[in-house]
Amino acid sequence: MSRKQKFFPSTCLVLAGIAGLNILQPAMAAESAQTLPIKxxxxxxxxxxxxxxxxxxxxTAPQVLDLPGPNHRVVIDFTDASVDKGAVQSAExxxxxxxxxxPFIKAVRYSELENAPKPTARLVIDLPENVKVKPRVVKLxxxxxxxxxSDQPIQTSQAPAEPPVAETASTTESELRPSMPEExxxxxxxxxxxxxxxxxxxxxxxxxxxxxANPKLESVKLYNKAVQLHLAGKLSEAIxxxxxxxxxxxxxxxxxxxxxxxxxxxxxxxxALSEFRKALAINPKDAITYxxxxxxxxxxxxxxxxxxxxQTAVSLDAKLATAHYNLGTAYEIQKDYDKSMTSYRAAVxxxxxxxxxxxxxxxxxxxxxxxxxxxxxxxEALKVSGDSEYSEDARQRLVYxxxxxxxxx
Length: 409
Description:
Oligomer: single chain
Shape: elongated
């Protein structure tokens, strides 16, 4: 065999390899041309995820996987796809947008898989551990894929598992507590020049009466000062002023009760209960005090005791809206939704400003699959306040219910 013949097969093999590369390059280019870049990720009114592509072609149906657990996440893989990072927002910005539109989403991440057999874009949705979803493709059309999470409204972490209690319906002085305790009001005319009895006008007795009146007048001033500090949120100063008022007049049940309200706000429930009991020792028929006791007991996980005190409060004052609302929260925790609705309705009947009650009624109607009634309650809640803790969740639920209604029509 000649030298030329010996090396000819190798030469042919090299040439064949070069030819193979020339054939492969157009094939790879063709495959690259079929890769669809994702240009936008958003949410629609039905709390579904919308993925839009830059090219007007039908994307491959993505693989959707739900991975529940402490690190609950939904993984969505789009084969023959990439992410146009110049068009799609950063993961941080995208998370902010999607969490405001879909409350049960915690965060969003995206990437392109390096070792996948085909170009693959991956989208990861982080969810709370306790949220149950059924993610699936609900729409696949030219240039778009829509991912749904459930056929029913999803309970989000923004909807409190246990509704909050209320102690006063507003921040007006008259609802926090009367500006002047009743026991001092009765004696005020005598200090304002009202007609005096002969005994009151005689020298020594007159001085004694004035001396007795001064401490009570001083206690009223201190009490009213405390109320103003309380309303202004200056709780430490209000505590001092209430205690000073009590030093002047130990019979100020309202001062003890208001101190209890402050200690409830500060989560000092043992001290709150002590002050509430002092108030009841002076005035055993004060509905606001029983309402405060109920709030303290519920915070200490004594729901039965809380219910008993709230029931006493509404029996003493049927117009005390916050006590009705608090009873509603207790019944809701017990899943007695009929009783809960009755109490919430009584609450808003007596004070329309209790937006939280409308919101809770909306949640109950949603549980009962009474969508139209739920939507009406959420609307009422948002009329009362568009900037409360419940507002964003109420707004999102309302959008979802309206979108759902539109689909059925």
